[in-house]
Automatic annotation (TrEMBL):
Protein name: Secreted protein
Region (Disordered) location: 19-77
High-level lineage: Bacteria, Bacillati, Actinomycetota, Actinomycetes, Kitasatosporales
A Pfam family hit: Glyco_hydro_75
Major subcellular site: secreted
Signal peptide annotation: 1-25
GO biological process, one term: polysaccharide catabolic process
Keywords from the named record: Carbohydrate metabolism, Glycosidase, Hydrolase, Polysaccharide degradation, Secreted, Signal
Naturally occurring in which organism (per UniProt): Streptomyces calvus
Subcellular location field: Secreted
Gene Ontology CC entries for this record: extracellular region
């Protein structure tokens, strides 16, 4: 499956939750080749379209969560399972003003959904290999490779797709503006595929009409083929981004995990 080139954002840093403040200069997505995703090859096996269906429901009336974790987090311990998170995002209250395509040329079927604590969507996963070039992500392995990312790491260099698990959000548009929902570079995300949950950061900005993309490292952790040319998966990936969260420095992978585990537990418990 070809991926649409996106502005790379990578994540992970010393766990530091801070109030959401819009970046001084909003990153702008690069122009992408129109056929970028259209010529991608899905991995072997049948495409299961029903697995990423979203049930649109009325507002669930979830209570607001302060993000401190003092109350609900103390009631349960241990890692949050994929089943727990998927149950929490089973119903969708749309926060987008329309829907996104999963790939170029496909119908727009994916809404961005929201609760008081998070935004989420259910889509495919295309591989974003942009950023600092390495052995697996470079101009030889990826015909659409770009050595830049929308959000740099703390030393000013681009993020490394090979090293940092990150997810890609669509460029702001009339359909949805991630900045208006407490999301920014470094926001913490839980990514679920089958029975696996892995934590990442928001690290790149992609095309304004397509959703469903993550870094080489994120795919690898989820057991998805991370090859930028023909890798990814056509369905069954859920992205949950926690509002008003942030890891600094963005490249601190361990902090993204510890912060993500805490926020995921709060998110699951808030449904009680």
């Amino acid at each position: 499956m070809s991926r649409v080139h996106s502005l790379t954002l990578t994540v992970a840093g010393v766990a530091l939750l801070a109030p959401s403040t819009p970046p001084a200069a909003a990153p702008q997505p690069r122009a992408e080749p129109a056929a970028r995703r259209a010529d991608s090859v899905a991995p072997p096996g049948p495409t299961v379209r029903g697995a990423d269906a979203v049930t649109v429901a009325g507002s669930p009336g979830r209570r607001a969560d302060s993000g401190s974790g003092a109350g609900t987090a103390a009631r349960r311990t241990g890692s949050v399972s994929a089943a727990e998170l998927l149950a929490r995002v089973r119903d969708c209250t749309p926060v987008s003003n329309g829907r996104y395509r999963k790939d170029h040329g496909m119908r727009a079927t994916v809404p961005v959904c929201g609760t008081n604590e998070a935004v989420f969507w259910k889509a495919d996963m295309d591989i974003d290999c942009d950023g600092r070039p390495g052995r697996r992500c470079n101009t030889r392995t990826d015909p659409y490779f770009s050595a830049s990312t929308a959000f740099p790491q703390s030393d000013g260099r681009p993020l490394s797709s090979e090293e940092l698990p990150y997810v890609v959000v669509p460029a702001p548009s009339t359909v949805w503006n991630y900045r208006a929902h407490g999301v920014r570079g470094g926001s913490v995300a839980a990514v679920i595929h089958r029975d696996r949950v892995r934590y990442a950061v928001v690290g790149d900005v992609g095309p304004a009409d397509i959703i469903g993309e993550a870094s080489y490292a994120a795919a690898e952790e989820l057991g998805i083929n991370p090859d930028p040319h023909g890798g990814g998966t056509p369905a069954d990936v859920t992205y949950v981004v926690f509002k008003n969260s942030r890891v600094t420095p963005i490249e601190d992978r361990r902090s993204a995990v510890t912060t993500g585990e805490r926020l995921a537990r709060q998110f699951v418990d808030s449904a009680d």
